[in-house]
Amino acid sequence: MFQWKKTIYRSACLSFLLVITLTILQRGTNPGSLFQDQQFSQDAVKIQKKEASPPNNFWGDKKLEMTTEMIDVTEEQVKTWDVTTINCTANGNFTAMDWFKGLEPNFQQFLLYRHCRYFPMLINHPEKCSERIHLLIVVKSIITQHDRRETIRKTWGKEKEVDGKKIKTVFLLGTASKDEERANYQKLLDYENYIYGDILQWNFLDTFFNLTLKEVHFLKWLSIYCNDVDYIFKGDDDVYVSPDNILEFLEGNAGENLFVGDVLHNARPIRRKDNKYYIPNALYDKSLYPPYAGGGGFLMGGSLAKRLYKTSEMLELYPIDDVFLGMCLEILKVNPIKHEGFKTFGIVRNKNSKMNKEPCFFRGMLVVHKLLPAELSHMWDLVHSNLTCSRKLNLL
Ligand SMILES: *[C@@H]1O[C@H](CO)[C@@H](O)[C@H](O)[C@H]1NC(C)=O
Ligand SMILES: *[C@@H]1O[C@H](CO)[C@@H](O)[C@H](O)[C@H]1NC(C)=O
Ligand SMILES: *[C@@H]1O[C@H](CO)[C@@H](O)[C@H](O)[C@H]1NC(C)=O
Ligand SMILES: *[C@@H]1O[C@H](CO)[C@@H](O)[C@H](O)[C@H]1NC(C)=O
């Protein structure tokens, strides 16, 4: 441990010197560019931090902070996240209207800010996607669920290379939705990110109705930073996933328009007010949703994701993120495919059923909802032990 700290500290000092040297050189050659690209500089310093600074420097290091303004190593202009200020005021266009006044407060809130499309990035990792990636694992998470992220990193989110094919993982976060969580959890998240380098965070509140915001932010991020991603698995942080089964599935099902998951056809908007997914007529008045895949976990082609980004910009945001993607797919005329290995609504609906705990069942699955960290670890170990199953499940 101490040995390790020492080594890290040494490399930190070295790289700090390097930064100073670079800066002096920079100043000499091109003083005007020093403060130009704040966003990129922040990105650069994050990479810097991750590689080099010692943990005990982390919490209050002003020297490294300083370099955020100092480094500018942009030789060729990279495209970066271009939203750096929050410039969004409530849309008062319909506040006087009766239908609006009759809505529940959360829907009013949603509508008032629906036009605010993109927010600045608080934590970015442009380097994550700088090489060819076969499978990018993208996990929706919130700031307080660090234990889920921890378990995912040790199980299905583990970054690795299989036969030369790279698997990488990122977590998508907004900011703490409760005031009392903000200060402390943000510090912890920064530290977590410093250790693992797999957090993408944007400056919007992580609420249920902002999940679609998270979706479009990710799609935009992908379009900027990921030139060469074959496939994307996107899911929740409380699911069981089998990357091996996903890879096996992809071998036989490659395709430009791949979009596969637990797809619902002819789903109806829920009109019961006590339901989590309730949608008032004022927001959506058709009787059916387009086909969409449950947001718990689905798989899509990298190039399709980029087209989804373009398409998403043509639509107004819809409060349910997976339905919103279904709307985009409909415009693109891409049919999401239902696959039995995606169980985002549980293996069987009866929560107490033994099937939901049966490792032999999990062995053949791609995604299963819903497991908390301890259950996930346990199931992962069971499935990856010498399991003897009485009957083989051939779902793939
Ligand atoms: C915010 O947006 C308004 C209208 O879109 C624009 O006039 C204003 O200059 C913007 N302010 C900033 C700080 O970007
Ligand atoms: C409010 O209505 C005006 C006029 O129809 C329109 O130009 C403007 O974009 C609307 N504002 C928002 C935030 O949608
Ligand atoms: C989404 O996030 C924005 C920015 O933090 C916030 O202003 C808005 O209230 C949030 N929307 C909902 C519906 O929670
Ligand atoms: C699984 O079985 C193989 C061969 O049957 C054995 O070599 C291995 O040690 C076993 N692994 C575990 C975790 O029991």
From TrEMBL:
It is a single-pass type II membrane protein. Its main location: Golgi. It is found in: Golgi apparatus membrane. GO terms for biological process: keratan sulfate proteoglycan biosynthetic process; poly-N-acetyllactosamine biosynthetic process; protein O-linked glycosylation. Its EC number is 2.4.1.-. Pfam families: Galactosyl_T. Keywords: Glycoprotein, Glycosyltransferase, Golgi apparatus, Membrane, Signal-anchor, Transferase, Transmembrane, Transmembrane helix. The keyword Signal does not apply. It is an enzyme of class 2 (transferase). One of its GO terms (molecular function) is hexosyltransferase activity. The keyword Transmembrane helix applies. It comes from the Eukaryota. Pathway: Protein modification; protein glycosylation. GO terms for cellular component: Golgi membrane. PANTHER family: BETA-1,3-N-ACETYLGLUCOSAMINYLTRANSFERASE (PTHR11214), UDP-GLCNAC:BETAGAL BETA-1,3-N-ACETYLGLUCOSAMINYLTRANSFERASE 7 (PTHR11214:SF93). N-acetyl glucosamine (GlcNAc) transferase that catalyzes the transfer of GlcNAc via a beta1->3 linkage from UDP-GlcNAc to the non-reducing terminal galactose (Gal) in the linearly growing chain of N- and O-linked keratan sulfate proteoglycans. Cooperates with B4GALT4 galactosyltransferase and CHST6 and CHST1 sulfotransferases to construct and elongate mono- and disulfated disaccharide units [->3Galbeta1->4(6-sulfoGlcNAcbeta)1->] and [->3(6-sulfoGalbeta)1->4(6-sulfoGlcNAcbeta)1->] within keratan sulfate polymer. Belongs to the glycosyltransferase 31 family. This is Hexosyltransferase. It comes from Microcaecilia unicolor.
